[in-house]
Amino acid sequence: MINALRNPWTYIAFVVPTLVLYMLFFIYPVVVSFIYGLYQWDGVSQKAFVGIDNFKRLLHDSTFLKALGNNMYFMAFSLIVNIPLVLLISIVISKVRRLRGFYKSAVFVPVVISTATVAILFGVLYDYESGLFNHVLRAIGGDGWAREWLSKPKLAMLSILIANAWQNIGFFIVLCLAAVLNVPKEIADAAKIDGVNGWNETWLVTLPLIRPILFVMLLLTVSGTLKVLDIVQIMTNGGPFRSTEVMSTYMLKVGFRSLELGYGSAIGVAMFVITLLMSGILQRIARSEEVQY
């Protein structure tokens, strides 16, 4: 066994298959998408080379710019609402002594439900006539309080954001809770001796010590909100009046409905570049530092 580990071919045997899969399923699609983005093509007829015209078109495409803005709306909601809520729930659960395992399992249940199921479930809850939300509102204030959640442009995006948060927030809670519970008890006890108690302990002790996990949460949030697709596709398909259109849904419509595969590939490349840049900027600004306990 020791001789095998000293043999460089042992490492090559494990690394090469991984590199091949990485090249095949990640690098190759990105390169091909960029190449297709240089052509005007419907997927059937002869490709016509147009250079970077498809990428220039993105800068003047009002629908793409609106879709990009909706992705940013997704991101802002997740960063301003979801992350603080995750921290609050994680801290509260960490203070609980009884049934902590039950609470951890309860908040994680929505994560294991498929996005299609979540989208259909909330579609039923948002139904104007028979939805639970409108039943509650009618019970409180009558028919005038009922809302067309997915049919009004001003409410549709918020409705999707709530459904998306309900499904994904549990994963971040479990991730954050693990970091909170991993903070050594000795540090918390020392802080209490110094007079740090309650929420001051959370702000001055816990949050600085779980900073690496917070950076991971931010990174996952940024990348996830920029490529969101399925829940929007199922709940509204980008409507009404493109008020919930995101880059992924627009790319599908352009590429597979309008058969503009070249332009659709350009949208995909733009999504990749934007996600890469924002993730890189986030890592640069919030450079992860290993916390020593």
Descriptors:
293 residues; mainly alpha; MetI-like fold; 14 helices; 74% helix; transmembrane helix; transport; transmembrane; MetI-like; cell membrane
End-to-end separation in angstroms reads 35 Å
Reading the helices and strands in chain order gives: HHEEHHHHHHHHHHHH
Q: Using the coordinates shown, work out and report the CATH topology.
A: MetI-like fold
Tell me roughly what share of residues is in helical segments: over 70%
Number of domains: 1
Largest sheet: 2 strands, antiparallel
What is the 3D form? globular
Radius of gyration: 24 Å
Mean pLDDT: 88
CATH class: Mainly Alpha
What are the segments in which pLDDT stays under 50 over at least 5 consecutive residues? Answer: none
| Total of helices | 14
Major sheet strand order: 1-2
Percent of residues in beta strands?
under 5%
- Going by CATH, what is the homologous superfamily? MetI-like
Work out the number of β strands: 2
CATH architecture classification: Orthogonal Bundle
Class from secondary-structure proportions: mainly alpha
